[in-house]
Backbone:
């Protein structure tokens, strides 16, 4: 053995150890960040009961929406900025700071000192701060891995990282139900020990291995981008809430103003970036086919996947599980359990596709995954509302496999197409497309479903209640309940009919048979099934269209690695 080889061997061993350390730490980070984004969805029933909020009170719908959307909004807006800061001042430095912020917010979330609306505001505020830390983690994790791993192993590493992030979204559905069954605060406790351990470990082991771009902050670019995107996503949230007798708020002047104002600011952002000497985003990256078409495909898949997750949860909790004899209070947990094939399919396909993309290339796998994703939507579209579970399980497993096939190769293709000094901002841009797509998806999918319900649900609800002996004045009042409230009540593990009739005392004047029919497992799901299924067909057709557009975009990305690596 020569002297030169003896010098190189310890160095190579140290580099090998470091890349696996970086992969383990960043994988835990993106997993926890994504887990906290979805874990609240299933645990909302326990949270609302724990802080004593009525899910059907008109003003409380806003609390529910912001608990879901606030976290995603912040992550969508901030990831590009903190990714750029990572390029300028060090990706590991920004990443480590993100872990500390995320852990600190998790601690305070688990010690909510208030009750009712004040308690909800406490949770929303600290989830926003937690999302700031999560943004610092997700924006820089892919860049840290791209720096640490050689090109021939980069697809595998980014695949594991991407799979961990999306797996956190899926696993959060089950973990939220299990932890909330013990104590609603446990939903936030789970992040504390993990956050403390990995924060300390990150500070002790991670080091800067990539190039720093230097430069200065593009303040006008950051402001116009952040305010513009925030305005659009806030408008989506307000658009889902009832407004002056309308089932949704899309006619609200505030919503219209936010959308048009936000789009105007985003247009101004593009103009600023084209003229700025040190832009927040190098728009020249979009001249790279792998980067441009990879992000376009990722946005389309995110829009299709994000809203689908919420629609499936409501389908299970509001209709299918009650029809099969499950009590409303138990439906959140069982919805997560029955969606396990989706998680299993994703966890199986994700790492394998990342491994294969290093050897076979990204385009074929990502394109095939997007096409299969669309096919799963077509299968769900023809599924009856009261389906046979094994068919549903196969379809959502295929959906999960398709997501896994697409996610890893697509991320590898995007990150492999950019220069070293721009990997932080490129990672942030990829995450922005993904998080923005998820947030917009919730608004689009919910709007389509609610529009379908609004057409026939009020009349069906009033008629059904009158047929069971409920007085006309009470049925008229209940019939005016916004469809979004009925959907969220079912999602929160509340029987809407029983909850609405109890304050009026109408139940006590009905026969035992009528009481049993109204408060049983079949009355509300049967009423809602027809209108809800009409909305589902439109939603799944829309998702399939997006998926096939993503497949076309993925095919157009090109076969090779762009120059300038």
Residues:
């Amino acid at each position: 053995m020569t002297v030169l080889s003896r010098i190189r061997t310890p160095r190579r061993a140290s580099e090998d150890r470091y890349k696996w350390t970086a992969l383990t730490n960043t994988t835990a980070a993106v997993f926890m960040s994504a887990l906290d984004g979805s874990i609240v969805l299933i645990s909302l029933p326990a949270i609302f009961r724990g802080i004593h909020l009525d899910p059907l009170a008109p003003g409380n719908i806003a609390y529910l929406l912001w608990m879901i959307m606030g976290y995603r909004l912040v992550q969508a807006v901030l990831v590009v900025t903190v990714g750029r800061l990572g390029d300028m001042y060090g990706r590991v430095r920004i990443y480590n700071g993100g872990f500390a912020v995320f852990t600190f917010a998790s601690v305070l979330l688990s010690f909510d000192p208030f009750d009712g609306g004040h308690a909800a505001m406490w949770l929303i505020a600290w989830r926003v701060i937690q999302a700031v830390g999560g943004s610092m983690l997700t924006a820089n994790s892919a860049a840290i891995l791209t720096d640490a791993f050689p090109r021939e192993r980069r697809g595998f590493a980014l695949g594991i990282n991407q799979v961990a992030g999306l797996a956190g979204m899926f696993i959060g559905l089950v973990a939220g139900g299990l932890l909330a069954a013990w104590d609603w605060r446990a939903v936030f406790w789970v992040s504390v020990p993990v956050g403390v351990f990995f924060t300390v470990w990150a500070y002790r082991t991670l080091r800067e291995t990539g190039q720093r771009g230097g430069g200065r902050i593009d303040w006008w670019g950051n402001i116009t981008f952040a305010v513009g995107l925030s305005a659009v996503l806030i408008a989506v949230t307000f658009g889902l809430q009832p407004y002056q007798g309308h089932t949704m708020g899309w006619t609200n002047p505030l919503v219209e103003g936010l959308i048009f104002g936000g789009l105007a600011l985003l247009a101004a952002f593009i103009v600023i970036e084209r003229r700025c000497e040190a832009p927040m985003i190098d728009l020249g990256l979009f001249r790279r086919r792998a980067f441009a078409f990879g992000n376009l495909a990722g946005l389309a898949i995110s829009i299709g996947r994000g809203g689908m997750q919420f629609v499936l949860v409501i389908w299970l909790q509001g209709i299918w599980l009650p029809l099969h004899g499950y009590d409303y209070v138990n439906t959140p947990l069982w919805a997560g359990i029955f969606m396990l094939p989706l998680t299993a399919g994703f966890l199986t396909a994700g790492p394998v596709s990342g491994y294969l993309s290093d050897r076979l290339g990204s385009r074929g796998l990502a394109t095939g995954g997007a096409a299969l994703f669309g096919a799963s939507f077509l299968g769900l579209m023809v599924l009856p509302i009261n389906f046979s579970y094994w068919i549903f399980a196969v379809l959502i497993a295929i959906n999960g496999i398709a997501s896994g096939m697409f996610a890893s190769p697509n991320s590898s293709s995007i990150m492999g197409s950019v220069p070293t000094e721009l990997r932080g901002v490129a990672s942030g841009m990829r995450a922005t497309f993904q998080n923005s797509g998820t947030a917009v998806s919730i608004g689009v999918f919910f709007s389509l479903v609610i529009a379908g319900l609004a057409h026939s649900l009020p009349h069906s609800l009033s008629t059904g209640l009158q047929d069971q002996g409920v007085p006309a004045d009470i049925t008229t009042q209940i019939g005016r309940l916004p469809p979004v409230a009925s959907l969220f009540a079912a999602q929160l593990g509340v029987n809407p009919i029983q909850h609405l009739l109890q304050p009026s005392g109408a139940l006590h004047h009905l026969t035992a048979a009528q009481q049993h029919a109204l408060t049983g497992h079949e009355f509300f799901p049967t009423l809602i099934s027809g209108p809800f299924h009409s909305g589902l067909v439109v939603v799944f057709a829309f998702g399939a269209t997006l998926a096939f557009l993503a497949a076309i975009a993925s095919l157009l990305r090109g076969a090779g690695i762009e120059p300038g690596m």
Observations:
- DSSP finds 20 helices and no strands in the chain.
- The CA atoms of residues 370 and 551 lie 5 Å apart.
- The chain has a mean pLDDT of 81.
- The radius of gyration is 24 Å.
